[in-house]
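Friendly challenge for the regulars: who can give me the structure tokens for this chain first? No prize, just bragging rights.
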Amino acid sequence: MARKVVLIVLGALLLVIGALAAIGGGALMALFGSNNTLSSGVQNVSTPTRALVSPAGSIQGESGAQTVLGSVRLRITATPTGAGHQLFLGIGPASAVDRYLSGVSYDVATDVSVSPFHLTLARHGGTATPPPPGSQSFWVAKASGNHPTLTWTVTSGSYQVVVMNTDASAPVAFAGGLDLTIPHSFAIGLGLLIGGIVLILIAITLIVLGARTRARPQSRPVPDPAAGALARPGPTGCLDRTRGPDPGPKSLSGNLL
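First reply, four minutes later:
Bragging rights claimed.
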């Protein structure tokens, strides 16, 4: 009975782990594809403020991940949809960006979903006019023009992506796309999918074996037929039926001569 329970419980546990691994691997393959790139496609974005700011990531100890996965790259493309404006794309340390936009009206993308693309914006009010973003020296990557394209290899630290007009005017409107390339992501997803399927097959085998396992019946003592049943003495004073009734003393018959 204990073996049956162990097989079924172990099988159920492997079934859950295998299903999660297979689902995660399939999702990773579908999102990144064979080119290892997660793409948002071209999306129209606008803000009535002077800038759109989005965290590029807060990655601590990222150098270890780079050693295992390779260089993680972020690529941003944009085309202005407002008449008479050129766009500036920049990535800078979060602290430097905050100082640059202090007192300026801008929107922060508090939540960014790539597939499907969705932005959740939070407004920061202000009345100050910042200097043109291209004049600042703190950017670790930047691009500007009518169709700017920015490519950045992700490094350890906390950074922010900033989209502005080159003259720091408002509003800002553009059609942009975001691509995130993680090397070997497709291979990792494939490995998870195959490993999950193998675990599922093992789990099903264990559950079937557990269901077929029967509990051993308890052994009972078997009487020895040669020994027979022990005769029990009858109560005191009972007749012995094997000998028949006691005729008692013989009576004298006839007359004495």
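The chain has a mean pLDDT of 81. The two ends are 92 Å apart (CA to CA). Your move, everyone else.
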